[in-house]
Each structure stands twice: as structure tokens, then as C-alpha cells.
Amino acid sequence: MAASAAVLLLLLVISVAAAAPAPAPPSPFRTVYAFGDSFTDTGNTHSTTGPYSYGYVSNPPYGATFFHRSTNRYSDGRLVVDFLATDALALPSFLPPYLSLASSPNATNKYYGVNFAVAGATAIEHDFFAKNNLSIDITPQSIMTELGWFDAHLKTRGAAAAGKKEVGEALYWVGEIGANDYAYSFMAADSIPPERIRTMAVDRVTTFLEGLLKRGAKYVVVQGLPLTGCLPLAMTLARPEDRDNLSCVASVNKQSMDHNHHLQAGIHRLRQAYPDAVIAYADYYAAHLAVMRTPARYGFAEPFKTCCGTGGGAYNFEIFSTCGSPEVPAACAQPARYVNWDGVHMTEAMYKVVAGMFFRDGSGAFIRPSFGSLIAAARKGHRN
């Protein structure tokens, strides 16, 4: 009987083991480089260097949900790029901000990549805004500044570490960039038409992307702009009659849609010019739109109201009393029920939803080609 029981137990163990799913193969990406603005910045900007009217990112309640302290991220917790690093790619840590590494070049932490994104950064060079008296923002960096930082960083890592192989096998995450360009030129629409800003901004982004490709990048994800007309800041400043069927600012959402259309045309040209590279377009607009159409489906009760704001009303937002300021030392009790965190940036809950659309949805509705196909291409490319 004992022997029979042992055999039965052995067969049971074997059958359970056979039924268990095989562990997922490790990600082909062990290094990630990120670029962009405040939607992607993980700490390059502090309260003393941040954008006008958002100069309190070093103060609580920023970071309160996940980190329980400010990490100089413009949210209550993690961003899409954080979910990319630790969830989608299973890296052991988040990407460190470049300026923290630059100030500590002898840091011995294991290397998984760097985040070059800066809150307030523009696609167009800062000099353009300064020459047109539009430099109300104290952030002088543009996307090309970040490319220069990338070059400097590779140089400090040395020729052996920063060889073509490392550059070619990394994933390049280009967060949304360009929204600040339109925001800074808002008051000069008569002298500098939005169409000119769009042409210049898309040109700079595609020039930046080509710069990465020329340096050997082979796997690139480029985010478009979200529904900037659904941000409480835009909705507070726009005329009440300027609304679309989402109750967002129609003219601003159209501006983002046009920008994304031209950006995708530029990406298409780059794909033709660099056929060996995989350039995925992450459709932030489509992801944001899906949430705003049916917020309850994604767990949100407040699609418009600011979680960390003041003033009550439809948006709970005052442009001169923003999150972290003496007037707003605390946030709402349940940030996960809110889409928007501080009037411009999203809650961790919203970033998590967007990350799920980008990294787990294989339909092509939110990222094209799908993230899964990019992973598969990288596995194949790394074996060759």
C-alpha cells in the first residue's frame, strides 16, 4: 500500500508540474534609455528647476501613493516609464535620472539604463521661445539637450561599455514631447500660428529620432501627445463654448490630434529610411480617449477633477495654487479614483492603466507594432 501511495503521489506531482505554465522568458532588454518631459521625468527636475506654476514637485503630497515621499516625479506615484522598467521588462529597479548620475559619476549601482526626461522640456530649442519673449518657463532644456546628455553619458561610460552593441540592444523610450511647445506659445497664436509650432516641433522630434538611429538604436518606442484638451489646466483657461463631445477643449484636442498625425508620418519616413530598426508608435491619444469615454470601466470616478488641487468646482484647480504649494499641502483621499493628479499630470492609477494598454494589449489599438512584437524582434535580433 505504501509503495502504491508513493507511486500515486509521484504521478500527481508530475502531472501538476506538467500542467504548470512555463516561466516567461526573460526580457531581451537589459538597458533602457528614456527621454521626454514631465510625463516621463523620474527626478531630473526639482522644485527649484521645475516649470512655472509647477515648482513644488519636491514637496508632499507628490509621491505619496507609492513612494510615500516626493521623488520629484510629477504624480502621486509611478509613471508609465516606471511600469515599463519593473513590470513590462522586469528590470530590478527604476531608471535613475541622468542628473543624479552626473552628480555621482562613481556610483556603483548595477546599470539598467538612464532617464534623460526633464519636466518642462520642449521639442523646439529654448532659444526660439526666448527670442519671441515666450520664455515664462524656467526649464531651458529641449529634446536635443537630452540627446546631448545621452552622448555625454555614453562617453563617460567609456568606449568599451558604450560600444555599438550596447547601443543597439537597448530599448529607447521617447515619452510624449511637444505639449509644452504649444502651451508656451498659447499667448502668441496671432504672431506664431500653432501650425508653425507643430511643423517645428515634429521636425525636431523626428530629427532627434534620426539622431538615435544614426547612433545605432534599433528598438524605439515613440509616444504621441495625450488628450491635452482634457487636462484641467486647458479646460480652466479655454472659452467655455470651446468643447467637444467629451466636454474637453475641442481646439486643443484637435491640435494634439494634428500633431500626432504629422508625427506618425515622420515615423513612417524613418521606418523606410532605417528598415533594420523597429520604431513603435505608442498612441497616448487613443489610450487617454478610451479612458475618458468610459472612465468607470477603468475604475475612475473623477475624469476631470484634480486630485491635488484647490478651488472646488468642476476641476478643483487654480493655476496659481498648484499641488504642493502652501495653499495645497494635501491631496484627495482616494487618488486611484482620479484620472488627473495636479491639473496637468496623471495619477499613478491612470499611468498604470495606460501602461497596461501599451504593454499588454496586443490588438494594435494603442501601440503599433505591438509591444509583444517588438520584444519578439529584439529576441531574434539579439540572437543574430
From TrEMBL:
Superkingdom of origin: Eukaryota
GO terms under biological process: fatty acid metabolic process
GO molecular function: acetylesterase activity
Pfam family, one: Lipase_GDSL
InterPro entries assigned to the protein according to its UniProt record, in alphabetical order: GDSL (IPR001087), SGNH_hydro_sf (IPR036514), SGNH_plant_lipase-like (IPR035669)
UniProt keywords, alphabetically: Glycoprotein, Hydrolase, Signal
Residues annotated as transmembrane: none
Keyword Amino-acid biosynthesis: no
Keyword Glycoprotein attached: yes
Signal peptide: 1-19
Family of the protein in this entry: Belongs to the 'GDSL' lipolytic enzyme family.
Protein name (database record): GDSL esterase/lipase
Lineage: Eukaryota, Viridiplantae, Streptophyta, Embryophyta, Tracheophyta
